[in-house]
């Protein structure tokens, strides 16, 4: 029997600066789609919004028609940047509503998605990276250092990026030897538009990123002209990059502002096809031939300052080295030791350590007062009598609730998802799993968080984690654990998502970057990487009332964010970040990953067969 034909490669339209002329842009897209389509998506670079201010605070240009439903976006459209005087206001509500790590775009209206910051996502099999913004002093329209660092981290990952979207056109010429023949590293400059050769307005940071990421296609805005450069060979890589710069929509010079490509995803190509050299290929435009640096001699970026990884009470002052030694070291006060020793910028006070062991509030010890007031469940006095008087007991056991999804005695529990049952914990397949081995470790008793569980079940949890670690290791993977606790949490579940060992080192960086984009910080609980000690530290300090999110990294490090009383936290944050890491943006929401009961049973049976030799309940 003949082999089934390979699926056709995706068909993508590219467009330059729209400048708010959306009716003209989408009319052209609709026409092209009808005559030579269908196309899967439209990617817009440059300034999407109008440079003009709308009247009476209304959206300028054509945008209002699409936001208010009078016009429809013909195909899925993705745009970068928040440029234009009204863009930040228009996008702020969409960003606030999203409240999640959305590498595949924040929906503005049906079929229209804003690519914010920087990320890598999967688009019909294509690996698409983007840097949304221009170089500047910060604020709307400018990318941040975090955005750049995120892309540099992605560049270190295995695999080839198919498309890289940026706003500015990089300046090829300043990095080249220009020969009298008119050829630049093999590229013919005789037909290059003069605007492309001008150095003003180009971004050297983008040039650096392109050389690190080495995409197959680099798509950018230009100075109002269309320019398709000859393919060039990347330094230290065998595949070529094609650069395409696009003109403004509706430009008077009739320059090309829309362009179609149909690249086969690199992930499905043979090695021979990926490494094929086109006849018009040139050397890299970013490195002069005489100065090309071998891969083994390329200087490495300095490692991140390890001082930033330690959890202290006043994190900002610790990072800036401004503490005068009057503040307490949280690590020493809570655990009795600090890995930084005499190099720590904070005070190691034995008396404060003793008070902490008697449940005295750390903020009270550090500042002499506590901002939580009566809501704080720790003691606000240094006398032992007050410690006994003010201590607030926790309930020993929680009742079973008949309507709970996770109580095994509940009629609502889906018992076919259960993989293993112990005395205090059980393991079950996640509903709508991110990956096939995505499981939950769940208390048998009805507790709102695993952090408040008694000591005996905590020991069993460690056994389950050890067993899962061995199981995943056989598959060349390692586990990332995370738990979100809110005031509305009913029955705890600790999520365990396996990731390839090749991506383990990137987990911490991508969580930190995702948190910064959402405006909060993940603090390191246990810089020594002892996961058991980290959990004990959380258990000893958690008040049982406030919300929190924590993630346990493959190396055992715990990252923590304590939620403010009115803080809105994205419930799917942990899953969304890992979906981005694994290039599975379409699976960030569990509801998009629902399986039939038969499929779930098959997945559970497959997991049990491999897990049985490690199962602590056996």
Provide a descriptive summary of the structure in words.
This protein has 618 residues and is of the alpha+beta class. The protein is built from 17 helices and 23 strands. It has an eight-stranded antiparallel beta sheet with strand order 16-17-18-20-19-22-23-21. Strands 6, 7, 8, 11, 12, 13 and 14 form a seven-stranded mixed beta sheet that branches. Helix 4 (145-155) packs antiparallel against helix 14 and helix 14 (507-517) crosses helix 16 (573-581). The longest helix is centred in the last third of the chain and has 20 residues, at 455-474. The protein is globular, with a radius of gyration of 28 Å. The two termini are 46 Å apart. The relative contact order is 0.09. The model is unreliable at 171-184, 288-323 and 386-402 (pLDDT under 50).
Key traits:
alpha+beta, globular, 17 helices
How is the secondary structure organized here?
Blueprint: E1 12-15, H1 22-36, E2 41-44, H2 63-67, E3 77-80, H3 87-98, E4 106-109, E5 112-115, E6 118-123, E7 126-131, H4 145-155, E8 163-166, E9 183-184, E10 187-188, H5 194-197, H6 204-213, E11 217-221, E12 227-228, E13 232-233, E14 240-246, E15 258-261, H7 271-274, H8 315-320, H9 330-335, H10 350-357, H11 362-367, H12 384-390, E16 418-421, E17 425-429, E18 439-443, H13 455-474, E19 477-485, E20 494-500, H14 507-517, E21 523-524, H15 531-541, E22 548-552, E23 558-562, H16 573-581, H17 597-611
Parallel strand pairs: 1-2, 2-3, 3-5, 7-8, 8-11, 11-14
Antiparallel strand pairs: 1-15, 4-5, 6-7, 9-10, 12-14, 13-14, 16-17, 17-18, 18-20, 19-20, 19-22, 21-23, 22-23
Helix pairs in contact: 4-6, 4-14, 14-16
């Amino acid at each position: 029997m003949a082999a089934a034909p390979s699926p056709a490669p995706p068909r993508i339209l590219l467009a330059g600066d729209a400048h708010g002329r959306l009716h003209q842009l989408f009319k052209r897209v609709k026409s092209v789609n009808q005559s030579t389509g269908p196309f899967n998506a439209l990617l817009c670079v440059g300034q999407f919004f109008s440079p003009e201010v709308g009247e009476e605070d209304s959206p300028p240009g054509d945008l209002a028609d699409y936001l208010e439903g009078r016009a429809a976006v013909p195909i899925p459209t993705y745009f970068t940047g928040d440029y234009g005087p009204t863009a930040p206001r228009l996008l702020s509500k969409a960003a606030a509503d999203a409240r999640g790590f959305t590498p595949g775009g924040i929906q503005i209206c049906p079929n229209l998605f804003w690519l914010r910051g920087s990320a890598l996502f999967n688009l019909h099999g294509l690996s698409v990276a983007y840097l949304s913004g221009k170089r500047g002093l910060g604020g709307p329209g400018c990318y941040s250092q975090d955005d750049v660092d995120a892309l540099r981290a992605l560049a270190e990952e295995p695999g080839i990026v198919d498309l890289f979207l940026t706003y500015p056109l990089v300046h090829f010429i300043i990095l080249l030897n220009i020969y009298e023949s008119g050829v630049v590293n093999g590229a013919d400059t005789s037909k290059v538009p003069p605007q492309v050769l001008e150095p003003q307005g180009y971004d050297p940071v983008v040039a650096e990123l392109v050389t690190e990421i080495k995409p197959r296609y680099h798509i950018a805005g230009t100075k109002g002209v269309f320019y398709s450069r000859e393919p060039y060979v990347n330094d230290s890589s065998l595949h070529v990059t094609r650069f395409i710069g696009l003109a403004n929509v509706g430009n008077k010079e009739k320059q090309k502002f829309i362009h179609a490509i149909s690249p086969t995803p690199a992930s499905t190509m043979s090695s021979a096809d990926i490494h094929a050299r086109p006849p018009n290929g040139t050397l890299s435009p970013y490195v002069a031939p005489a100065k090309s640096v071998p891969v083994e001699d390329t200087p490495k970026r300095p490692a991140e300052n390890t001082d930033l990884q330690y959890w202290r009470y006043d994190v900002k002052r610790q990072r800036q080295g401004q503490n005068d030694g009057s503040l307490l070291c949280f690590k020493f006060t809570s655990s009795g030791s600090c890995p930084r020793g005499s190099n720590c910028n904070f005070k190691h006070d034995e008396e404060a350590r003793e008070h902490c062991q008697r449940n005295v509030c750390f903020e009270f010890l550090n500042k002499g007062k506590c901002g939580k007031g009566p809501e704080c469940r720790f003691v606000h006095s240094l006398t032992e009598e007050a410690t006994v008087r003010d201590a607030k007991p926790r309930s020993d056991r929680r009742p079973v609730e008949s309507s709970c999804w996770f109580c095994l005695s509940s009629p609502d529990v889906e018992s076919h998802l259960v993989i293993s049952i112990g005395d205090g914990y059980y393991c079950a397949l996640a509903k709508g799993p991110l990956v096939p081995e995505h499981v939950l470790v769940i208390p048998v008793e009805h507790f709102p968080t695993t952090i408040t569980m008694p000591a005996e079940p905590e020991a069993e949890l460690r056994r389950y984690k050890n067993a899962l670690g061995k199981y995943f290791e056989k598959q060349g993977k390692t586990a990332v654990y995370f738990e979100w606790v809110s005031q509305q949490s009913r029955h705890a579940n600790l999520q365990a998502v396996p990731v390839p060992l090749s991506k383990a080192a990137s987990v911490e960086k991508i969580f930190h970057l995702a948190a910064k984009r959402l405006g909060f910080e993940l603090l390191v609980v246990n810089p020594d990487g002892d996961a058991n000690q980290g959990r004990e530290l959380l258990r000893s300090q958690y008040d049982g009332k406030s919300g929190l999110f924590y993630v346990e990294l493959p190396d055992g490090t715990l990252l923590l964010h304590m939620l403010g009383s009115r803080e809105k936290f994205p419930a799917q944050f942990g899953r969304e970040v890992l979906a981005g890491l694994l290039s599975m943006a379409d699976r960030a929401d569990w509801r998009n990953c629902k399986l039939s009961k038969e499929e779930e049973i098959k997945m559970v049976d497959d997991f049990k067969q491999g897990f049985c030799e490690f199962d602590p309940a056996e």
